[in-house]
Amino acid sequence: MPRSRLGPLAIESKLGDHPSTSSVWRAIHVQLKKSIAVKVFSAPFGSTPEARRLLADEWERLKTISHPGIAKCFGGGFEETDAYLAYELIEGETLSSQIERAGRLSWENALEIAQGIADALEYLHGQGVVHGAICPDKVIVTGFAPVLLDLRIDRFGSPFRTTRPPSIDQVARQPPEAIAEAGGNGNPAAPPQASADLYALGVLLYQAITGRLPVSGETMQEVRENVQSESPPTPASIVLQCPIWFDKLIMRLLEKDPANRPPSATAVKLALAEVRKRALSRTSVAEHTSSGFSPLQVTSQQDKDEARTLLGRGVIDLNAIEPEDEVPDNVVWHDQPWFLLGGLVLLLMLLGYVAWPASEASLRAEAEKLIAMDTRKALAEAEDEPLRELLVRFPDGPHAEWAQLQIDLINVKQFLHQLSIKIKNNLPIKNQGELLHKQAQEFSANGDFAKAIDKYHSMVTVLGDDPDYETAVNAARYQIAALEEKAAGESDAAKIIRARLEEADQLLADNQVVEARKIWYSLVELYGDNSDLKPLIDIAQQRLMENQ
């Protein structure tokens, strides 16, 4: 997009994992000095009064959608042949980037993401809205929670939409009913139903856990056919750590017939809560499957035989047993003295193992394992059990200081996560610590790291001795370290300003003084209050004075 302004927005740089194909830009609202994400549509043949009215109605409806798991839409507008929708800018890593970087996610992380998305879908479907394009690119994991991006009311029917044909990856995520009804452009002929979102959630979770899509194919036609006919291997058959209850839920979400999928996002939420509850029992997947204890029953005899094989329980061939001439002992095996004595010894060993307290080193190892998961559940469990126990039992041990540091860091992350939800939903700020953090975050969001750091330093100075604000002060120190590291390198805004200054210098060299002055003036107007960018803005102001 060549223009640098779009209505009240100053366009900065492209967003997305693949900027070259993205139509979403980072921008700043000039009057509000607020960073946003703006999706731009070029529709020279769709800018009829009727089409504009439909898009305006759509963004008015989008503005009413408010949920912490959904990026908020602030509205939209028109500029010549372009139209745009402005969304809340969510900072963080997309789920696609996480999967690409790690290969796949742990089932615990996937479960955390699934619960967040299911909650957002429950709200959306309750409002009569279907997302219609759930995929890892449109999920950003910020803090501990996933956020859905790019919400539309009429994603496929509006003239203001992407004109690129769907890729093989996008077609692989479409439900079979959409493939069957797709028009010539590959998009669904009818508006998607809520069941399509549930199918897309199943595809997303399958890919997150296994690192691959549930359907294969080299060509577009092959993928379309496989979506309708191919039965993928279960996630648990690829990743043995995946609980059978999670495995069965994902496979039900991927049912070809919409009627066989869960009836609603609410039902999916309940099923995910049941997965978490049963997973906490720590009983092995194979044990549950073979014994029939799982609530998601394994109905196939083949599946039960596979589970028994995992447990080392082969099927006995009675024909292979040779008859013996000896008269068998009439005492049943479990009443034999050797069995009773051995059982008693094993029981005593088990009681000793359970009763024997964990060592300091083992407590730290358990805590490190939970902290490495980096989920809300795992961090809370690490704080409640191994870290607190380590401090109580070994207050003067070599790991006590480390344990206290980890507890403080967990409390900081929880504080910042809860504050982000309050800010996002305009909930009341309850104390001075939260207010100062909110003000500092506003400076940081606008790229003014120096003012943000000053605000955090003032918080440490003013509230540092008050025990009621201990967590808020620790969070301020945490943010100072993060911002100083970020400020050490040149920001995206600084790079953009340098590029614009070079462009203006070239225009001046070509004797296009008016055009060059426009650039310098816009930089001063937009970034004049940003202390981090002051040296560059001073250059623009000097150029204006020299070329009046």
TrEMBL record:
Domain Protein kinase stretches: 10-273
Molecular functions per Gene Ontology: ATP binding; protein serine/threonine kinase activity
Tagged with keyword Transferase: yes
Catalytic activity, EC: 2.7.11.1
Enzyme class: transferase
Keyword entries, A-Z: ATP-binding, Kinase, Nucleotide-binding, Transferase
Pfam families for this protein: Pkinase (PF00069)
CDD domains: STKc_PknB_like
Record PANTHER family: MITOGEN-ACTIVATED PROTEIN KINASE KINASE KINASE 20-RELATED, SERINE_THREONINE-PROTEIN KINASE YBDM-RELATED
Name listed for the protein in its UniProt record: Serine/threonine-protein kinase PknA
Originating organism: Stieleria maiorica
